[in-house]
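Z., the sequence and structure:
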Amino acid sequence: MSEESLLNISNLTIHYHTVEGVIKAVRNVSLNVSRGESLCIVGESGSGKSTLGLAISLSLPRNAVVVEGSMVYEGVDLFKLSPPERQRYRGREISMIFQDPATTFNPLFTIGEHLVDILRHHFGVSMDEAVARAIELLRKVQLSDQDRILRAYPHELSGGMLQRAAIATALSTNPKVLIADEPTTMLDVTTQSQILELINTLKQEFGLTLLLITHNLGIANEICNRTVVMYAGALIEEGPTDEILLNPLHPYTAKLIKAVPTITKEQGRLSYIPGMLPDLRNPPAGCPFAERCEFATRYCNSSSIKRVQVSPGRRVACILHGAEA
């Protein structure tokens, strides 16, 4: 993995404005992504990981507001660009695969129409060249009978086939960064494994920087060399994936690992994390996990716990490892 920095996020805070109040979805997140690495963003539902992915891909919904922070990609702060200037990066330099592949496609158009339109728009190629490139992309994602797939509407494909077509669409612009947001959640177990293997293969072939968003640390172990753990909008642990799995530093990370189903050892009922995520309309002042943590002290509730480096490449926001408020 190259250590050259490709993307640097600093103190990113994102709020959603809803009828029920302002939701503080991402809070003071700082993250550096190296060129060519595979990074997993892990956390349970509501942790802010998908919002972070949408921010990186410049795809935040209209009710989302970047309150503060910067996102510097190859020396350019993308948040300071005008909407037209951002279009040079959104989908072209940075592309995203969504949890539900159907959201990638308009049901009124065929897969071929989607791919051809994207290729002609971004590269100005002829119709014949676009069709040839679309066929090659479908071959790359291991879809056979490419001519039939090009003529098919989204509803005519199985979930696994549609996700492969969505991956082909994401790669059609030759992006440098590929964000995959829970890309296997809606698929059966066998197809999940195939899609993960495909993404890993394409990552190597296309020389991509991969950001994989998941709630499952077992998936992180299969794909990513580095992992960051989010909880209630905050980044609470970061490090090499194998080290995090063998020696989790934050109590939340340890509980996430125990909650991963396994068939390699005997165990009773599936482990779970008692309690609920805090209300992000009014997040706690201290460690967001304190109310669910068996090791919490009065200091954990006092003020925000800052991440500290405990070894090369490993950072954690927990007073058990020397973090201070």
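The chain has a mean pLDDT of 91. The chain is about 30% helix and 25% strand.

Let me know what you think.
H.
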